[in-house]
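Hi R.,

Here's the chain you asked about this morning:
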Amino acid sequence: MLRSNFEPGTTRWAVRRAQWKSMGIREADFEKPKIAVINSSSTLSSCFIHLDDVSKVVQQAIRDAGGLPFEVRTVASSDFVTSAGKKARYLMPTRDLIVNEIEVTVEGALLDGMICLSSCDKTTPAHLMAAGRLNIPTLLLTCGYQIGGLCHGKEVDIDDVYESIGAVEAGKMSLEQLTEMADAAIQTPGVCAGLGTANTMHILAEALGMTLPGNSPVLAGSRKLYEYARKSGERIVAMVQEDLRPRQILTREAFENVVTVDLALGGSVNSVRHLAAVATEAELDLQVVELFEELAKDIPLLVTVRPNGPYRTEDLEAAGGTPALMKRLADKLHLDARTSTGRTVGENLEGMEVGNPEVIRPLQKPHSLRPGIAIFRGNLAPEGSIVKLSAIASDLDRFEGPANIFDTEDEAIEALGNGKIRAGEVIVLRGMGPKGGPGTVFAASFVAALNGAGMAHEVAVLTDGELSGLNRGIVVGQIMPEAAEGGPLAVVSQGDTITIDLANRTLTMQVSEEELRSRLSAWKPEINPIQTGWLALYAQLVQPISGGAVLGKRRIKPEIGSNG
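And here is the predicted structure, written out as tokens:
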């Protein structure tokens, strides 16, 4: 029996029936699977502007398959639009806001399943987290990437605009030239081109088994996307009928698969926190940071899509996308892991071929023996930190220099423009994590500005703030614990020597253990400057980033197996 079916022995069904009958829902519809179509459509950003058209196709496919669709709207957060206010503090909290919006609407109405239209980077992890939390039949439809344009005969995209901010600050580009580039950089709807967090999470959603095979990457607005919209609408109805639930898919084996794919892909550093949050919401007893450490010993880099190398997202799609990469990694994957198709990973990959052996290389001929992402530990990051090795020159094994400390990104960008950041320094941006921000303050713009100023490989950056998957250079992010929780990053002093050992994956402040203990014992937390509104509430509820920075303390249950 469908959980949405009316129960005549109760009274609550009557008011819901009255509402739905007034909307034109027929008597026969009441017995159909009732499917939520989760849509973050918004005219604020090109990331979301096409989702209404996608939603219409999905809803019709659900009807054609014998289901009853209900569109559910959620907040839409774009890193390049929503970042304008509150120093980008709203970006990370938006993820958890979406999760709770979905819970309220879908659980409140007792809908039978949901299909989530995933786009800009907080929507995809939010959809996966909601799937893990609610554990009702769920399918994600990733809604595609954008295409860049031409500026004076040169291909440009949003990444070029992002990095050119630093070129303007350094006097290497005029404001007029930057404006011309910005006007040409985005030509279609969809998420940022390149392996930013959005495209990374689209690919990882598929690698987890939560989309139909071959959904990622896909060009937004393309015939292929709308064909996947139709197939996905049909499939979610079947998933409800089969009672195929997320926790039957989101197993330890699935997470080992997705981390393997992420390492070979060279995905966004933000994927680590998002995957940890998905595992937490699915109540899976799994330490995702440690899983990255473990698997990184054996997984090389197979893909060099921007910012990791010369190829573009459309090259990865043409080479076969996620299924082709997983085919390359087949010997490293759990091929018996279950997916949203009802079939296993291995069955989904049957007959798959790689279209371009340079875009997706074989394990025997990787682009680099290093994995795309690595976990660094040391006295500055006792619980770990994340480095995108694929965005660092492969011949660099060590970086050491004096700390130059900034408490805001604006101060750091101003110092860059004034020539107060020098080659050989380690730039520290702290107090910018989920609790300290609150809401994870942007550090990504400063890193991009370093690239634009030509200093990306001359200085290093350490931060507990928000990075972009498009960032390049010697960057250590998600330092745990964050400074606001009394992590060692909080007690770094100006001029302290900091060593980043890429060969041994360590992050060390060159002070004695006694000195470090003394500094930590004297440290006192600062009062959160934001005392009202959503960000203040978020700061009170957010948990450590090592567990994904979810809201509220959790009691993790034993791992749920294939019958969970």
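One quick note: Residues 103 and 210 are 18 Å apart (CA to CA).

Cheers,
M.
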